[in-house]
Write a structure and sequence with these properties.
145 residues; 10 strands; globular
Length: 145
């Protein structure tokens, strides 16, 4: 039995596909520089919509990118406003594929990709292969001096 699609359903289907494709964003090389600096996790959104907020973070991510390559490092904020660092980092490259922008990480132990969902001066959203979204914000400096 042939599948019959009415004109109304066909138009709605086309509009839905266009909307889904237009929501994806290919970031440009000029925008990658917004990734540079310190980013603090604000919340995690699970695929089912559940959210977990983070009000205090023991570590903060530091990104440094030039053109399409860079590294990510975990740093620990100190009470005097400085950061304690170690020698561990994750090298990455940024690439656009299939209408999305991916950050591809490489370490001695693993390789993985994260979808770059949002990137502004104050917001960073990354989505991993399990559709878990990590929402970051710029950390507020503090000191107890």
């Amino acid at each position: 039995m042939p599948i019959r699609i009415t004109m109304k359903k066909g138009v709605l289907l086309v509009l839905f596909v266009l909307l889904a494709v237009s929501c994806q964003k290919n970031f440009t090389a000029d925008e990658y520089s917004k990734l540079n600096g310190y980013w603090e996790i604000e919340k995690v959104v699970m695929p089912n919509g559940d959210e977990k907020g983070y009000s205090v973070n023991a570590t903060i991510d530091f990104f440094e990118v030039k053109d399409t390559v860079g590294f990510r490092k975990k740093v620990m904020p100190q009470l005097d406003g400085t950061y304690r660092v170690n020698d561990l980092s994750e090298n990455f490259s940024i690439q656009n594929k299939d209408g999305k922008t991916y950050i591809s990480y490489t370490t001695d132990f693993a390789k993985w990709d994260e979808d770059l969902v949002a990137l502004t001066d104050t917001e960073l959203v990354l989505k991993n292969q399990h559709d878990i979204e990590y929402h970051y914000k710029k950390p507020q400096p503090f000191s107890v001096k």
